[in-house]
Design goal:
This protein is α/β, with parallel strands linked by helices and 394 residues long. It is built from 13 helices and 14 strands. The protein has two domains: 5-85 and 95-174, 3-Layer(aba) Sandwich (Rossmann fold); 182-358, Argininosuccinate synthetase, chain A, domain 2 (Alpha-Beta Complex). β4, α5 and β5 (141-143) form a beta-alpha-beta unit.
Amino acid sequence: MKKQKRIVLAYSGGLDTSIILKWLQENYDAEVIAYTADVGQEMDRKKITKNAKKLGVKKVIIQDLKNIFVKDYVYPMIRGHALYEGVYLLGTSIARPLIAKDQIRVAKKFNAYAVSHGSTGKGNDQVRFELGYHYFGPKIKIIAPWRIWKLKSRTDLINYAKKHGIPIPKDKKGAPPFSVDDNLFHTSTEGKVLENPKNSAPEFIFQRTTSPEKAPNKASFITINYKNGDPVGLNGKKLSPAKVLDKLNELAGKNGIGRVDLVENRFIGIKSRGVYETPGGTLLLVAHRAIESVTLDKDTMHKKDKVMPRYAELVYNGYWYSKERFKLQKIVDLKRNKVNGSIKLKLYKGNITIQSRQTSSNAYSMKKVSFEENKTFNKSNVERFINFHKKKLR
């Protein structure tokens, strides 16, 4: 008897990937393995397994990647202060490379000849997934249903789901849901009323942040502890990377921090509008810049700022595993061993205020900066410094 081929599908348990699972079974003579990467998204493990098996799947794999996600993907990106187009903290972008890598690991483990994903033919995620697939499994076939099937719209998908008895979820208003992606770092919401940029984002779409108007009237405080450029704990208590981000999400979210409404330029040339919630990530970005301000020299900090836009663009476009991103990461991490100490933040109704910066580093000198007379800074050299730079004006 001929052994059946296998396909590993990146399966969320939602409508799109459930439809894809059924479609793969109908169109390919292969066993479909449902693979779910747990990167901190809201998920029901039992429901995912139940839904997949109801559709005829024998093997369901749910892999906990939360700590790896934060430690090896989010933290390096935060060290680079990466913001795409000046606003977007790259929450979806940074998760895809890890999911792709682990999905290929599973494909190799079970000798699958192909992998599949549920990214649409107009989006960025298809690029991010497939560049990751190619990097780790160049000989493994990629099946991208949205680019090859005859289902062309959300209506087509819903009709297909009804035909095959696939449950159709509803949003809080009783209609088919927005397009949502979430992980431990962020939540993104796209589609429906948001597609028209003149429309305000309805409050009910926000999932992890309270509106600043409804945030507590009393400020919250948090101290983030750093070692070698990364958070290692909160308020002096050592915590795992995933736990640090989880607690920061909760605290920042209830204080109305981390909302972004963005019309962005997709890699494939389309403008799209999305609403992002990155509460804990917003705190991490502010705090990391603050700890570097008292631990790193000017040249190192400014060099990082110069490479940041390109670094962010590479992450957004799916080039996490590229030689160029690896090269820029070396610049970003050049003196990370000096970035140690703690930053205390005040959170109040959508605002973040730095309360204190503490470090044993000598990069910041109170003696040199003091307005009191001292002998540590020779002011007579300043005139020569200015005269030198006058010549550069001509």
